[in-house]
């Protein structure tokens, strides 16, 4: 049944965002298909339902947006916005990005990512407290995307702030829609024009010069607008999410000092610990879709034309899928979780996100085997799509 149950979930309620998990549990148990009347959307919260629904792109479309506010606002999505496209065009565009966004290009970044983390953390070695988001989480992902694209350092902070602030939402139900410059990627325009005249060994140069067969069967390179769209999606999707992952690593391990000590003693456990943090505290709680046909869930019908939220943050805590799902356990066989999505839009930056999480944690533990969090002064960021620490003051004993 839909929300005859008394449980309420308002994605714009910052009080709930502080600890959404008890509400998610009630949704799974009492209203596995939830309808929110105020904002007029449906939500699925069980792992099995998200796992079944997400790959069905014919029923659950991204072409009108994958963020609830964008779908509800009915704004026109600029062509080439990969994450908000559907097959067959999405398949063609994704294939091109997969060709240039190679595992080799990503693993080649490892020494530079490590160097960046080391330089970012070293100045705090003699300090007894610092803000982990300021020191590392806020900067690392954009620097890494910059390394990937070849963006000059001076441009990077501006781009990051612009992207993040556009996704900030108002507490109490206000809905902000990203501005047109973000959706079109125009903030990168000057850099792209410069890089076209100054090609080098980076992903931007590949995007500008790689030939592909487009949806009309024409062999060509990407237009300027298409390149803008790609670059914008990469930085929009890979920046704040990965920064929040760094914060969740810091806070979750502070809350589980015994497990942290195991990682200090045996760093080979670190990759699985990062995977468990991804499952346990997903930076991105929800992906939304536009429903193309009447579809039945739990005895009710979701009408064609609805907005539907796949609550992946809830699915990851579903005991039906993960035994003792509310327990953080670095030894868990995590397997597939939904933090990085599923199906046609599965996160293209998954390997890059994992690499950053692993290296950030390795470098952190190498310098600070123990830390506490000053919880009183830690603040959570509330954005429409991302949940994580804005400030995470850590205290070094
Ligand atoms: C912890 C960090 C990250 C999280 C939690 C995350 C999460 C996600 C999720 C849930 C999706 C699927 C959205 C949907 O189905 O509508 C997605 C797609 C995507 N992500 Fe990530 N992401 C992360 C890091 C990155 C990074 C580092 C990059 C690249 C620099 C990146 C690039 C992308 C792109 C391009 C897509 C769209 C793929 C498509 O539409 O085919 N992500 N991400």
UniProtKB/TrEMBL annotation:
Reading the lineage from the top rank, the first entry is: Bacteria
Enumerate the InterPro entries for this protein: Cyt_P450, Cyt_P450_B, Cyt_P450_sf
- Would the keyword DNA repair be found if you checked this record's keyword annotation? no
Gene3D superfamilies, from UniProt?
Answer: Cytochrome P450 (1.10.630.10)
Question: One Pfam annotation, family name?
Answer: p450
Has the keyword Heme been applied to this entry?
yes
User: Mind listing the GO molecular function terms for this protein?
Assistant: cholest-4-en-3-one 26-monooxygenase activity; heme binding; iron ion binding; steroid hydroxylase activity
Tell me a GO biological process for this protein: cholesterol catabolic process
What keywords tag this UniProt record? Heme, Iron, Metal-binding, Monooxygenase, Oxidoreductase
Name the family the entry cites.
Answer: Belongs to the cytochrome P450 family.
Looking up PANTHER family in the UniProt record yields: BIOTIN BIOSYNTHESIS CYTOCHROME P450, P450, PUTATIVE (EUROFUNG)-RELATED
Q: What is this protein called?
A: Cytochrome P450
């Amino acid at each position: 049944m839909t929300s005859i149950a008394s449980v309420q979930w308002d994605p714009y309620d910052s009080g709930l965002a502080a600890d959404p998990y008890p509400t998610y549990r009630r949704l799974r148990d009492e209203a596995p298909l939830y309808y929110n009347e105020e904002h007029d959307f449906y939500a699925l919260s069980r792992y099995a339902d998200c796992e079944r629904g997400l790959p069905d792109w014919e029923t659950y479309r991204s072409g009108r947006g994958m963020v609830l506010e964008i779908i509800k606002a009915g704004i026109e999505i600029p062509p080439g916005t990969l994450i908000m496209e559907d097959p067959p065009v999405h398949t063609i565009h994704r294939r091109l990005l997969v060709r240039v966004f190679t595992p080799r290009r990503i693993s080649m970044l490892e020494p530079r990512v490590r160097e960046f983390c080391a330089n970012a953390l070293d100045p705090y070695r003699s300090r007894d407290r610092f803000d982990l988001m300021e020191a590392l989480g806020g900067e690392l992902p954009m620097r890494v995307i910059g390394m990937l694209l070849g963006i000059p350092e001076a441009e990077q902070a501006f781009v990051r702030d612009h992207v993040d602030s556009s996704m900030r939402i108002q507490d109490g139900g206000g809905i902000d829609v990203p501005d047109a410059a973000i959706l079109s990627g125009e903030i990168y325009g000057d850099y792209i024009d410069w890089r076209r005249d100054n090609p080098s060994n980076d992903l931007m140069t590949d995007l500008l010069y790689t030939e592909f067969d487009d949806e009309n069967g024409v062999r060509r390179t990407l237009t300027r607008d298409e390149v803008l769209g790609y670059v914008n999606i990469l930085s929009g999707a890979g920046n704040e999410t990965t920064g929040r992952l760094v914060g969740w690593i810091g806070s979750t391990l502070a809350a589980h000092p015994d497990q942290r000590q195991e990682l200090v003693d045996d760093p080979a456990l670190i990759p699985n610990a990062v995977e468990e943090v991804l499952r346990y505290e997903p930076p991105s709680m929800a992906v939304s879709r536009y429903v193309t046909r009447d579809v039945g869930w739990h005895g009710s019908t979701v009408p064609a034309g609805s907005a539907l939220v796949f609550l992946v943050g809830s699915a990851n805590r579903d005991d039906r899928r993960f035994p003792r799902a509310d327990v953080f356990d670095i030894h868990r066989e995590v397997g597939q979780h939904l933090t990085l999505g599923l199906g046609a839009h599965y996160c293209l930056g998954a390997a890059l996100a994992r690499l950053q999480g692993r290296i950030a944690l390795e470098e952190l533990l190498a310098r600070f085997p123990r830390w506490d969090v000053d919880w009183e002064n830690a603040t959570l960021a509330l954005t429409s799509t991302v949940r994580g620490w804005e400030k995470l003051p850590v205290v070094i004993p």
